[in-house]
Write the structure tokens for this entry.
Amino acid sequence: MNKGFVSTLEAVIASSLFLLFLVNVLPTFAGTGGTEAYSSTQMQDILQSLDRAGELREPMVTHNVTKLHEMLDDYALPLNSAVSLLYINTSRGTFSGGSGSFTFQHEEEQEERTVLHLWIDQIDRLTVSVNEQQVASISTAGHRAINIEDETTQGQNTINFTAQNTVLDYTLDQYFTKRSRSLPQSGEITSVSHHISGINTTFSPTEIRVFLWE
Amino acid sequence: MGVRDGQFFIIGTIVIAGLIMGIVSISTGVSTSFTTDSITKAIFDDSVNEFPRAVSRIAHTADTSEGVERDIRRYIDFQKYIALQHGVTLKTNFLIGLPIPNGYNVTFGNFMDGTMQDVSITLDNTTRDLGDVPAGNITTLSFAPDSEVFQVRLAYRNDTSTFYTSTKITSYISLRARSGSTVWRETRVN
């Protein structure tokens, strides 16, 4: 065999190796973590664009996760997606001394946070209990926020105030989640978040989370 | 022994393949960290952009500055909670101006790391000293501006923010969002 033929053969082998690398090795290597990273960034932009276009707020404040999932599912392809909303249900009241109580319903699977805000104008000494477990003993006026999710149980719960010469308003913020579908038990899931304060003149803080996975 | 042309191509292929893999590896790493940064940035943007809208909505439904104080506190609590769910810490101080009959109420809130020292608010030529404002504190002051357009100055320690507004709902927010080593800051007046 002459020298030129060997060189040509080696050049062909080199070109084949390079093509093999481009076709098989590079896409696998580049794909590690790339698709989800790109898609989550893209989904973040989509949420903000849809909000600017006025299409996101109405289904968010009406807690319509099905509609939101339908809106966003195509944008998530080829990844799988799920949509969840975090919103607040608020109860308010006033207490003016002696002993008082109010009840509320707790949904274990849907409620992720329960905060009792107290706005105390006058105070002698105030004891706050949730389901007969004392959660606070307060002797100064002003605002207090008490997380009570650990004391709440599934179904009906009771908050008791016991005090003399005390005037306060209370606000119970229950943070509920609503999800369009369940998430996989294993594998990497990325999430994207966008939150709003309400729609038009309605104050209704709500967060949308979009989950993406392969 | 010299390298023949064909061997040069094979060695060249291996070197080029290595270079491409190296470059892709670096760019993949950047892309992944950009995702974390982008979530921090998105939460930060939402918080800054939505604050004046929240103020406007709250002012529309709350009867008094006390009502505004309460709902804005609940709103900031909500924002901080959802930010924390994504590993982002939010710190803020804000100022809200609300027109009232024959005057203008200014509500100031500190939700930074700690006490803000020597805080004062000046509206035109009237200065009110708030002294040291602890974290989590919200205070409302009443002013009686002489004109419809006036200057507001918020000062604490060596920092001063000055802006002009009129007898309308005004919001000023200074926000810091942090996730790991990524920090976003902005001050905005609406």
